[in-house]
Design goal:
The complex is a heterodimer of chains A (304) and B (283).
Chain A: H1 2-13, H2 16-24, H3 26-52, E1 54-56, E2 62-64, H4 68-74, H5 77-108, H6 115-122, H7 124-127, H8 130-140, H9 147-154, H10 169-194, H11 198-206, H12 211-222, H13 224-240, H14 243-248, H15 260-270, H16 274-303
Antiparallel strand pairs in A: 1-2
Helix pairs in contact in A: 3-16, 4-16, 5-10, 5-13, 5-15, 10-13, 13-16, 15-16
Chain B: H1 2-36, H2 40-43, H3 58-65, H4 69-100, H5 106-118, H6 121-134, H7 146-150, H8 157-168, H9 172-180, H10 185-196, H11 198-214, H12 217-222, H13 231-241, H14 246-266, H15 268-280
Helix pairs in contact in B: 1-14, 3-14, 4-8, 4-11, 4-13, 5-8, 9-10, 11-15, 13-14
Classes of the chains: A mainly alpha (304), B mainly alpha (283).
Chain lengths: 304, 283
């Protein structure tokens, strides 16, 4: 045993060359991953800035454009409208989806028989892609043969243009977003609720509190940290949502569902203004960083 | 006695609301499956029926026959499997390097990894598209290739972070013992560390699968010809191809949804684990 330790000590002292190799050996392990992250994250974030200050000439070359892209951005009413639309979508779908998830988590935490199965099935929408989700709802919301209008008619209402009425299209998109959000956040809330110490509820029971009181007085306050986390994740997710809008409304009617990412995409790939689209991405950066910064503040507090 | 009655009531209300939610979450899927085996006339019948009298399973044959569906599913399998394998290897290797080895710049680079987790991927689509277009290979770089489709998922800051969190819980004595027995660093990683981080491997595989299989915007940008579409992109284009042939559209949608669902039900354990980790703040 003693011999062995000495051996490894001897190795460690080793020759200068071997030691130098050892010193840098870590890069063999982290290098490949760092290289990929360079190409997929670091260089793009630098490149998006570079692109914003350039424009493509008709011959396909880039020339310096100064601040002209940014000037265009500040006069781009549709860009600001798209941010407004995204915020409306975010607030509405998060409010609906998160409150539904919270109630469902509270119900599941009562652990009635078969609870586990409800839990498993509730999460299914979250593992389904946005494209498939949008396709299912496209059919349900169809004006002529969709089930929503059938039910509306049965209930004595008029048929509605769920996706073609500028007043309703955003509501439809919000409903689909909330449907996904409720599914995704239920298990997150559930485990947060299960971590609340049981004696809090027992004490409340002794004081004669009923289930609804317990929900608002104990459950809700106890999961505020997790609630803030889910709200911020909902924000970040909303700014990246595009497939649902693409398939359900294509941003219309009258740009009423034009979300920011959809607009950036349109400028870049449909109008071929890739430099301007890069500028718009950069314009989104302050908002997204603000959200991330708030999230980090919150998770710091939680860690303490 | 009164308590018992109250509990029965509470249970009844709980079941009622849960059942309602179950219908809300599941009905679109049931309706999709029902429509997928109808004739177009049955799909447009008024009043609508949940399932047709005689299911038209040939709709599925038709959707595979006359379209790019099969090819696009195969593309998705290749891209997803490739991304999972590369991500698992590179991320776990990097996490091992960061957590168990000393080298100049270690802290700096780990902070770079953490920073990449905070960059919203939506911002990167446009510049990344240009970069992929200019990578060596062809006149259009990696556009319209499998490696181009895979690149953004080949390693993520999140998976490095997750593996490292996991390594923190494994005693260093384990790999020190192995090294004393003459194992090199890479052998220690391969024979000691990898078997011990299996739960993390499952988690990263699950996350990567859902990320890649369900992604929309990146494959939409990179695949330029029909034969390189992923399943999601093919499904989006069905919307134009079959316009109001709802049974065929729903058959296509159910085929594209199936792998995620199978994956989900098969790996239940990992999903529950990862989501409850989110809930307790152990990310």
């Amino acid at each position: 045993m003693a011999n062995r330790v000495e051996d490894s000590e001897g190795q460690r002292r080793g020759s200068g060359k071997a030691k130098r190799r050892n010193r840098w050996q870590g890069y063999l392990f982290v290098g490949p991953a760092l290289l990929v992250l360079m190409v997929t994250s670091i260089i793009p974030i630098i490149y998006v800035v570079w692109m914003s200050f350039h424009r493509e000439t008709p011959s396909g070359e880039s020339s310096f454009a100064g601040l002209s892209n940014f000037r265009q951005l500040f006069h781009d009413t549709l860009f600001f409208k798209s941010i407004g639309n995204t915020l409306v979508y975010t607030f509405a779908s998060a409010a609906l989806g998160l409150s539904a998830a919270l109630v469902l988590a509270a119900l599941l935490s009562r652990n009635v028989k078969g609870s586990k199965w409800f839990q498993i099935l509730f999460f299914v929408p979250s593992v389904t892609s946005e494209v498939v989700t949008a396709m299912m709802f496209l059919w349900l919301l169809d004006y002529n043969f969709g089930l929503f209008n059938y039910v509306a008619e049965k209930a004595g209402f008029e048929r509605v243009q769920w996706l073609l009425d500028p007043e309703l299209a955003m509501l439809s998109v919000v409903l689909v977003g909330a449907w996904r959000g409720a599914s995704y956040n239920t298990p997150i809330f559930l485990s947060a609720i299960q971590n609340i110490p049981g004696d809090l509820y027992e004490a409340a029971s002794i004081d004669g509190a009923h289930a609804v009181q317990k929900f608002f007085r104990i459950t809700v306050p106890m999961i505020v940290p997790i609630l803030s986390y889910t709200i911020i994740m909902a924000f970040i997710g909303s700014f990246q949502m595009v497939a649902i809008v693409d398939i359900l409304t294509n941003g219309g009617p009258l740009d009423s569902t034009m979300v920011t990412l959809k607009y950036i995409w349109r400028q870049g790939f449909e109008f071929n203004n890739l430099n301007y689209a890069a500028t718009l991405s950069l314009g989104l950066l302050p908002i997204l960083f603000l959200i991330t910064w708030i999230q980090m503040k919150f998770s710091d507090r939680r860690a303490q | 006695m009164d308590m018992k009655k109250a509990k029965r009531w509470a249970d009844g209300i709980t079941y009622g609301l849960l059942a309602l939610a179950l219908i809300g979450f599941m009905f679109p899927f049931v309706w999709m499956l029902g429509t997928a085996v109808k004739t177009p006339a049955e799909a447009m019948a008024w009043p609508p029926k949940l399932f047709p009298a005689k299911p038209q399973f040939q709709n599925y044959a038709e959707i595979f026959d006359g379209s790019i569906l099969l090819r696009s599913m195969l593309n998705s399998v290749i891209v997803t499997a490739g991304a999972i394998l590369v991500n698992l290897f590179l991320a776990s290797l990097a996490a091992y390097g960061f957590e168990r080895m000393q080298f100049p710049g270690r802290k700096f680079w780990f902070n770079v990894v953490l920073a990449t987790m905070m960059i919203p991927s939506a911002l990167l689509i446009i510049p990344l598209f240009f970069i992929v277009k200019s990578l060596p290979g062809s006149a259009f770089g990696w556009l319209n290739t499998y490696q181009g489709l895979m690149l953004p998922y080949a390693v993520t800051g999140f998976s490095i972070f997750l593996f490292r969190q996991f390594l923190l819980g494994i005693p260093k004595e384990m790999d020190e013992a192995a090294e004393m027995d003459g194992c090199g660093k890479f052998q220690t990683y391969l024979w000691i560390i990898v078997p011990m981080i299996r739960p993390a491997i499952g988690l990263v595989a699950v996350f990567t699968f859902l990320l890649v299989w369900n992604d929309y915007l990146w494959p939409l940008a990179v695949s330029r010809t029909e034969d390189m579409y992923t399943a999601q992109i093919a499904l989006k284009f069905f919307q134009g191809q079959y316009s109001t042939n709802w049974p065929l559209l729903m058959a296509g949608a159910s085929v594209v949804a199936l792998p995620s669902l199978v994956f989900y039900f098969a790996l239940q354990r990992f999903f529950q684990q990862s989501l409850s980790n989110l809930g307790t703040g152990v990310k």
